[in-house]
Amino acid sequence: MRAGLPLAARGMRIGLLGGSFDPAHEGHVAITEAAMRQFRLDRVWWLVSPGNPLKARGPAPMAQRLAQARRLLTDPRIVVTDIEQRLGTRMTADTLAALRRLYPGVRFVWLMGSDNLVQFHRWDRWKRIAATVPIGVLARPGSRTAARHTKAAQVMARARLPLSQAGTLAGRKPPAWVLVNLPMSRQSSTALRAGR
């Protein structure tokens, strides 16, 4: 195992929430806690990305974003990481491939807000991502309905699980995904940056 990477044992169910976290906020915490409950996860790793290829502007420095995210959290099951920076990966498909090699037997679940599902078909090798790990989609304001009708949702329609089976997601063979409704938080990193 490489230095600085989180520990995980074979059989653990770990959610992966990627993003710039610029800055991390209570909305991230709320969807993480909901994901742990709904998908019966042992841990959630926040993958603080070096940068987002779909965003025009670069994020705040990595050290600042990591420190701010860690100050926000109190649950030791939620781990803030700079895995992509340590692995030298920028694309989710590459990060997932590396994590599966480094952590054999760990049951990873990719977590995303419904706002990300709306643009998922624009991600690099998105179909490979869907074929690599199950995906837990968490409703976000303004995108819950749109997410159900996106190109990605239509392509993956047969792999969608009913909400009643959300707790089985980590043990499912991909492709598998489920959309979970939760109490809405309108907080966003974009709005918080604008208020600085």
Please specify the SSE layout and strand pairing.
Blueprint: E1 13-19, H1 26-38, E2 43-48, H2 62-72, E3 78-81, H3 83-87, H4 92-102, E4 107-113, H5 114-119, H6 126-132, E5 135-138, H7 144-148, H8 151-155, E6 177-180, H9 189-194
Helix pairs in contact: 4-6
Could you characterize the architecture of this molecule?
- The chain is an alpha/beta fold and 196 residues long.
- The chain has a single domain, classed as Rossmann fold (3-Layer(aba) Sandwich), CATH 3.40.50.
- It is built from 9 helices and 6 strands, in the order βαβαβααβααβααβα.
- It has a 6-stranded parallel sheet.
- Strand 1, helix 1 and strand 2 form a beta-alpha-beta unit.
- Helix 4 runs parallel beside helix 6.
Short description:
Helices cover 35% and strands 16% of the residues.
